[in-house]
Amino acid sequence: MMETNDKAATFLAAAAIQGRGRLKLYIGAAPGVGKTYKMLTDARQMKEEGIDVVIGLIETHGRAETAAQLGDLEQVPLLETCYKDRPFYELNIDGIVQRTPKVVLVDELAHTNIPGSKHTKRYQDVMELLDGGIDVLAAVNIQHLESVHDIVQTITGVRVNERVPDLFVQQADEIELIDATPETLQKRLREGKIYPPQRIQKSLQNYFQLTNLAALRELALREIADEVDEKLELQKGADYRGPLGVHEKILICIQHTDTAERLVRRGYRMANRLNAELYILHVARDEAVDKGKVDYIRQLCTTFEAHFLLQRSNKKVANAIVLEARKHFITQILLGQSARTRWEEIWKGSIVNTIMRQTYNIDIHIVSDQKAVR
Length: 374
Hints:
Blueprint: H1 2-14, E1 23-28, H2 35-48, E2 53-57, H3 64-68, E3 74-75, E4 79-83, E5 86-90, H4 93-99, E6 103-106, H5 122-131, E7 135-141, H6 149-156, H7 166-170, E8 174-178, H8 182-190, H9 197-205, H10 210-236, E9 249-253, H11 260-274, E10 277-284, H12 291-303, E11 307-312, H13 317-327, E12 332-336, H14 342-348, H15 351-358, E13 363-367
Parallel strand pairs: 1-7, 1-8, 2-3, 2-6, 6-7, 9-10, 9-12, 10-11, 12-13
Antiparallel strand pairs: 4-5
């Protein structure tokens, strides 16, 4: 596992090197959505446009429609490796490098190579090709992404052993989601377009249940949306004017422990409804941070699955809130009802007004302290 993480870190560090190949990923929610088919279709289009494209490794899984897309695309011979007196065929990295195509196709990205291979994982093979200046088209299913392993196991009851690090996926130059509805996938399965006849009924009763497919589809859509949103945020950089609103992020501002739980519960419910990330901010205005208060807020973050933010600032609380909101591309801010008198707001300024003047495209919610009306 440590080797995998080190390789991913190396991949990130090398990404900025000029002359490095470009990576396009085709991601789907489940087998049979059409990732390999679409990748082959794109490759044939590239060939028609005069681009030098070859097949490194394609798994058709006996699907006639996918096999038909191979057409006259050149295929680099696979590398035969003998393991336990049996021949296995893996991606021929050296053969591809020697052939020096502009683009190469690599299927089943999460695959574990046979012991004795040049690399442990196929995505590491791809990293070497990219380092060599070769563009790669590759396909993978959402369940093979490292960060969603536990979620997928909860949804399907299946433990996925072959996984790809998130860092590798995040470095892709282009990601295309290949989508199909659960009903369409079940129809393809029944027609024998995904698995052979002997596997159809068992698959329908297990992995390919409509509820499983719907949950995996939603997971894939969310992951790709988050990835796109992160790239957009990075691209905005110094031109920041406000959050894009594609991915909701809620910031709860806590100054006093007596209203903390009420604020957090309200923010947590909002985050659940919006599928939003939740942040909890405490601004410490004194040099000596109140450790008891901070520990209490940290515990709230753990309980409600939120990110904890601590800002030490002698400036106005509103300015500290604005700073964190900009930094994390917050889309909604929750504040407790102000304890300031009308005269204090005139003299010191309203926190809400200050935030509104200094931010763009952020909604502000004021949560009542439920004091009795007199």
